[in-house]
Design goal:
Length: about 600
């Protein structure tokens, strides 16, 4: 910067020559210099004020935008810095095929104690014992005085219990918010849902994990944050499930049965519309597993899926199907029923003497062991094994239950000719009622394999592997209808729904081998309507006895059949099925078409 001299020599000389005072020139230059300095400082100050003002305005704008954003969003607790310690508490709902809630979450509170913060531990112990009958005041006081700094008292509290604890007024009793799994329908569908329990627990949250049933099978899906709480939709119909359970429980009580199972399945899709196993339990208070004795005695045991039984004459339908499919017989073919039939030291007889021969249809209608055994021998052991295997009767079923993969049917160690004969009428092989339902559905839906599923079908099902021809499938439906019209399942008729089905009564096996004389497994595998099958229903009763007559009756026709008929009578309208009048010639037409 060029600075002007305060006493410029040229002006000083000129001022002296003119007689002027040179000091005035210096004073004027000082004044001008000060004015320039003030102007520069003023401009610098003004610039700083403008910049500072703009900075404050920008800061207020940012703060305002952030406050507006926070005000319009939901409050969220910041995540822990250590992601490995985060406990996922949100678990998706489970709903039925119509959207009704089967399992959901409920916000509740836990109760814990900080003994060092307690004012009157003795009073707190007495108060807690009064609220919770399972707590002992002396034991609580001993825990409070043991020197421990943290004590879990209750994992879940009801609002009433929480208020009662709050009224104690003890600062050392604290509450922690958490979620609990709630099953609003209690015992309904207990074996399917399974249940849940707490995994990792913290003071303010707890991890909910599935322990059985679909809760365990779909645990990862139900806990996956990426699913954004999308519910798991099952194939069950809650109203049909409730009706089935009510009827089955009534039948079980009336007949004094030890256990019971019922499965209602869509023959086209394999969707399980209802599945009941009794006795059952409340998944809100899941009992502990048995540590001794027979597992099937536990209410946790699913008799529909885990129970393996010799299902008796229901297997004769499989024998008739393979005989027709391999060209060995038609519905009118006469089958030798002369008895007894001996194999070594073993003898096969019929319940009644049916004469020298019966048509294949009447072998099913009258349930002839002799006719079924001779048909199986004619078909051959190898083809029998292949046919039953094609129906999925040799392997665990791929149904979506945690327990299902461990249920493998019991087959003879050596499949002899005797095994071929006895298995033809359901003895010497043990399967679950669900295996039987899936097998019947595959034969009666037109002849294509279906796999049972507990998930609602979202799209039209693809046709499965063909098991039998359409003609064989129709003929089987006609035969099963005749069993109800004039055979062993006459009590299975439900007016307007044209029920068809096959009874099966087998002596119950002893744990150490052999069979009981007075204990049976009674089964009725039914289809409705028989001329256009839509649903299969299997009802199995363990040790039923009908006592209205002079002698106790334990056969399926007197026990399982009436129970199944009542289930159909109540469930069919709930499924949207209207009663219809069957053309008089319809069954004859289907038989003649074969």
């Amino acid at each position: 910067m060029i600075r002007t001299p305060l006493r410029p020599l040229a002006r000083i000389i000129s001022a002296r020559a003119a007689g002027e005072d040179p000091d005035l020139i210096e004073a004027e230059n000082i004044r001008l210099r000060h004015e320039q300095m003030r102007n520069r400082e003023r401009k610098r100050a003004e610039t700083r004020l403008v910049v500072l003002g703009l900075s404050f305005a920008a800061a207020f704008l940012v703060v305002g935008v952030r406050m507006a954003n926070l005000a319009s969003s939901q409050p969220v607790e910041p995540p822990s810095a250590d992601l490995s310690d985060v406990i996922q508490t949100q678990r998706a709902d489970i709903i039925d095929r119509n959207g009704s809630i089967l399992a959901t979450n409920l916000v509740t509170n836990s109760l814990y104690a900080h003994p060092p913060q307690m004012i009157d531990a003795s009073s707190a112990a007495r108060g807690l014992a009064a609220i919770f009958p399972d707590m002992d005041a002396r034991e609580l006081l001993a825990s409070f005085q043991s020197g421990r700094k943290f004590i879990w008292l209750r994992r879940k509290l009801s609002p009433e219990q929480m208020q009662a604890v709050h009224d104690i007024g003890e600062p050392g009793l604290l509450f922690g918010p958490r979620e609990m799994r709630l099953y609003p329908n209690g015992k309904l569908a207990a074996h399917i849902l399974g249940g849940a329990a707490y995994g990792r627990e913290g003071v303010h949250s707890a991890e909910i994990i599935g322990v059985a049933g679909v809760e365990h099978r779909f645990d990862a899906f139900l806990r996956d944050p990426a699913e954004r709480g999308r519910p798991l939709q099952l194939s069950l119909d809650l109203t049909v499930q409730a009706a089935t359970r009510r009827v089955l429980a009534g039948g079980m009580s009336l007949l004094g049965a030890k256990a019971a199972a019922a499965i209602l399945m869509d023959v086209k899709t394999g969707e399980v519309i209802a599945m009941v196993s009794l006795p059952d339990f409340d998944p809100n208070d899941r009992p502990a597993p048995l540590t001794t004795g027979d597992a099937s005695d536990s209410p946790l045991f699913n008799h529909a899926v885990q129970g393996l039984y010799e299902l008796g004459s229901t297997f004769k339908v499989f024998t008739a199907a393979m005989a027709m499919e391999h060209g060995v017989a038609t519905p009118e073919t006469m089958v030798d029923t002369r008895g007894p039939l001996k194999w070594g030291k073993h003898t096969i007889n019929d319940f009644h003497d049916y004469g020298n021969a019966l048509s294949l249809t009447d072998v099913i209608v009258k349930s002839s062991n002799l006719g079924s055994a001779r048909l199986a021998i004619e078909v051959g052991t190898g083809r029998q094994q292949a046919f039953l295997d094609s129906l999925g009767l040799f392997l665990p079923l791929p149904v979506e239950l945690a327990e299902a993969p461990n249920v493998r049917p019991l087959l003879p160690k050596r499949w002899s000719e005797l095994s071929t004969m006895t298995i033809s009428y359901g003895h010497g092989i043990s399967v679950s009622p669900l295996h039987l339902a899936a097998g019947y559905a595959s034969l009666l839906n037109g002849g294509t394999l279906v796999q049972p599923t507990l998930l609602k079908a979202q799209n039209a099902p693809e046709a499965g592997t063909r098991i039998v021809s359409v003609e064989t499938s129709h003929a089987l439906g006609a035969m099963l209808r005749q069993v109800v019209v004039r055979g062993t399942a006459s009590m299975g008729e439900v007016e307007g729904y044209h029920v068809g089905g096959k009874t099966g009564t087998s002596e119950k096996q002893k744990p150490g081998g052999g069979y009981y004389d007075d204990k049976t497994i009674a089964t009725f595998a039914s289809v409705f309507p028989a001329h256009d099958p839509k649903y299969v229903l299997v009802v199995t009763l363990d040790e039923p006895t009908e006592t209205s007559g002079v002698k106790p009756r334990r056969t399926a026709g007197w026990t399982a059949v009436p129970v199944a008929a009542e289930i159909i009578r109540r469930a069919a309208p709930l499924l949207g099925m209207r009663p219809e009048i069957e053309p008089a010639t319809d069954m004859d037409y289907r038989l003649s078409k074969f």
